[in-house]
Request: fold
Amino acid sequence: MNKIKIEIKWAVIFSIVALLWMVLEKLSGLHGKYIDYQMYLTNLFAIPAIITMVLALKEKKNRFYNGQMNYLQGLISGVILSIFIALLSPLTQWITSYVITPEYFPNVIKRSVELGYYKSIEEAESYFNYQNYAIQSTIGSLVMGIITSAIAMIFIRSKSKK
Reply:
């Protein structure tokens, strides 16, 4: 358990950051009045997500590996972290969908039909729902976490001394 304590800690931190981002989106009107901009601006979450992943990998390097972590060690840590984030994703999505912003799905369904993205309410409902978003967030967090870790470790890894 001690080996993965840092990854578990940072998976929880990542989930809290994601929930705070959803609160920010809701408060700024992106789940209501300005919903047309949500699909673009939500991508800015990549910034705090990457920062959180990098901070987690740096802590792993400094605290667990005493400042000397090779690429593979960091990548494995990033994969483990990504797995824990993915496991927490359905819960994070549930909190977002039912506690933080229960009006999001009805609003985005209505607006996507108005704009012609979907032909009917039923068609939009088949995409915009908790189950679909929970699956997408689980797979997306796993894939993006691994990619982020693979790239970040190029810079975080300890350079071999010649």
